[in-house]
Amino acid sequence: MPPLRSLDQSSKLKDVLYEIRGKAGVAAAQLESEGHTILKLHTGNPAAFGFEAPYQIVRDMIEAIPKAHGYSESRGILSARRAVVTRYETIPDFPRFDPNDVYLGNGVSELITMVMQALLDEGDEVLIPAPDYPLWTAMTSLSDGTPMHYRCDPDNGWQPDLEDIESKITERTKAIVVINPNNPTGAVYSREVLEGIVDIARRHSLLLLADEIYDRILFDGAEHIPLASLAPDLLCLTFNGLSKTYRVAGYRSGWLVVTGPRQHAEGFIEGINLLASTRLCPGPGQYAVQAALGGVQSIDALIAPGGRLLEQRNTAVETLNTISGVSCVTPRGALYAFPRLDPNVYEIHDDAKLIYDLLVQEHILLVQGTGFNWPTPDHLRIVTLPEARVLREAIERLGNFLSSYKQ
Predict the structure, then answer these.
(1) Do residues 201 and 260 touch, judged by C-beta distance below 8 A?
(2) Does the domain at residues 11-51+301-403 carry the CATH identifier 3.90.1150.10?
(3) Of 337, 291, 286, 348, which Cα lies nearest the Cα of 313?
């Protein structure tokens, strides 16, 4: 028998980064197998920190199981898509659409993958924020596109830099991604900035891709303005789902809404329909959508004064800002803090090594800032889902670790 041919990974993976579940996560699993307890502050997984799924969603899922074992329409079950339509009908100025403009997916992640595959040819460019949720960059690269990162400004509450966006546009630019509220910074974008982005898209005929999965996790009276509501004359794809607001990440239930004119994009839409048909729509998680969107919005109590999510956000920011050389812009949405390590205090050349060393010494797992395509090794992302006392202790341990850390 001849020797087996060597099989390497595809060259398309060369620029793909997903450090949220990267090498440090593998090391954490090894430590757990050796009997250590790891505090995992690297993924926004509410269930891991004692957040219960709303009972009406669980009830509907259980009742639907006997009829959820077959295929559904490629876009998803009609009752769920109608519920999505109803959700957006209550939002002022959101463009009208019908159930045929809604696609359900195996979480938002699958829908991002479908859209990028349907949209991009080799060398096409997509504007993506830095820092970003890294799946956007990864799926752009895997679809043979080129990610072009525009800067969000920490000195301006992490708002996108409109001049930097404009400077990154070329004849190959096809779309701009807007993550609002932002992961990892927790920024909620102002109307002025969003209108500026829409104006740029309008002048350069760009597709708008709006990742709004955290649109109802808002603090301090922050207002979320859906991007599509400012761009009725542009093709806009809005991504959202149940995983964060309703704390059911494991149900893998996301949706994509298409609004605006599409005569110029018939081929692209046809591509999305083709990919939706080939992947087959996910099963039981669809049956949670109607119950979630039509029932009591339990997230409201969690983000209100005295609510658990607000208390934890406050604890994280206050404790981080007590560490010498560490500063954190207060997140106004989402479930994360993105503190800065002052380079004049901490000489960090490799933030992935910093994360690994913290894991080994303190058994705390975070994600380095460069894992979110931030260009310099001076930030970390911390999930703010643990109870306040756990967060406070973890961040104090981080401060003790940093006080003597050298690379």
Answers:
(1) no
(2) yes
(3) 337
Q: Does the CA dihedral 58-60-64-66 come out positive or negative?
A: positive
Least Cα distance to 11 among 144, 125, 110 occurs for 144
Q: How far apart are CA 215 and CA 223, in angstroms?
A: 9
With cut-offs at 50, 70 and 90, classify the pLDDT of residue 19: low
d(CA 238, CA 212): 7
Taking the complete model, does pTM exceed 0.85, yes or no? yes
In the chain, where the domains are located = 11-51+301-403, 56-294
Hunting for tokens 């607001």 — which residue is that?
245
Other beta carbons within 10 Å of 94: 20
For 266-279, write each residue's pLDDT tens digit.
999 999 999 999 98
Q: What fold, for 56-294?
A: Aspartate Aminotransferase; domain 2 (3.40.640)
- Compute φ and ψ for 151, nearest 5 degrees: -85, 135
CATH topology identical between 11-51+301-403 and 56-294? no
**pLDDT tens readout for residues 277-325:** 998 676 788 889 999 998 889 999 999 999 999 999 999 999 999 999 9
